[in-house]
Amino acid sequence: MAKQTGVRKSGLLMPVFSLPNKYGIGDFGSAADQFLSILTACGFHSWQLLPLTPVGSGYSPYQSESAYAGNFMYISPEILVEAGLVTPAECLAAGYAGDSTHVDYAWVRDRRTDLLQQAYSRIDASYRSEMAAYAERESDWLDDYAAFAVIRQQKNGKPWWGWDEKNLSLADPEAVADFCRQHKQDVDYIRFLAYEFSRQWHLLKEKANKHGIELIGDIPIYVAADSADVWANRRFFKISEDQRLTHVAGVPPDYFSPDGQKWGNPLYDWHALKEDNYTWWIRRIQAGLKNFDCVRIDHFRGFERYFAIPSEAETAKEGQWVQGPGHDLFNTIFRALPDASIIAEDLGEIDDAVRRFLEQTGLPGMNVLQFSFDLYGSERDRPHRYLENSVAYSGTHDNTTLNGWLRDLDDQQRQLVTDYCGGADRKSLLRCLWQTHAERVIIPVQDCLGLGNDARINTPGTIGGNWCFRFTESQLDAIDHDYFLRLNQLFGRFFISGD
User: Where are the domains of the chain?
Assistant: First the structure.
């Protein structure tokens, strides 16, 4: 069962890809170290991140080929130099000369792959021994993922249900083992990427924790259909004998999207998961808590009831709610992981049943300031009603920025914000947020700086232009340390680094 600490906290939401550097995408190198320095200078406790998993064609970290693997593009060229795996000249050649405010994923993927293949060719016996030990510890997921990634590569990126060799498509153990023997070096390279990602990430986590900074991770409730997780564990998903998804996940129409959202993820076979004592979910949360101090579970309401959309439907409007596993799942999780630190993302269409479910789990839910001033909403959504056992945000990765939201207010809503906060401006809203009862407040870095709509991370229901915004070094240098330090002091959220 989750426990409140009684300590008021604050933090920033910063995706790794948004960190500034000269390599085209943020990574675990010096820019991450500098961001830790910003957090401590402002008196923040927490760094919240988006999922660190590999990204596909749309670059969404919520649609990944693995729930466990890391995005190799976050592996720092600088740290590879420190390890003696690449030369300074090779690191320099990996620099990006294009637009520093957006990620060019195709360019970064190609250039980082070249660099990492050079690094792999130079690993010595000591490194290989450590890598082998890591692969053994993580074999529950890494064996499946390494095989899946290489087979998919050999099949020119086709999804597993489109592979021409049925035994491989069905993840037959003998066929997969035979394939891995034939492609031993390619499989070994995937293990190298996984190990180096983990090595660099835990170096960063150690630095963060040394400075008293908690790292908050993000676990999407669903996994992608074309993923190692589904391919190797299809008994836990609603997949027909002919490998078709009859229904897919999503959400009904809401504030974000008038047609709802059809995510396309396979739905869980909760009966099969229960028969296995929910081991798959316990391992997934356990892995998250190995990498982070706390994890946010996205779309938490899907455990109480989930939205099932016919796979052939054009929009989510044709979906319907289906009962989920509820308390049975979380009672089992808490027995296995009694000290699990979890934040429940309870946004969207929430009813009394979901509220009761969340309350009984004891987990903190979420409040979003931008949703607290609906002229036709409930008074219980106002900031003064935020529960102590909750996390309050100015906005999430799916929202526009606070300044962007303010600019789009109509006259009535602007007056409500003015009356409530003492002004319809960013700093008045931040002060209002910091004053709430919520034990923890988190704001995107965009709201530290007062950036507009062009700095948003994601616009739900749209294709293209998402998950690519990056900060410049000069922008991060402009964060007002004194302002946030004072805000944290005034409202009991001040943190002094233990270092």
Answer: 59-213
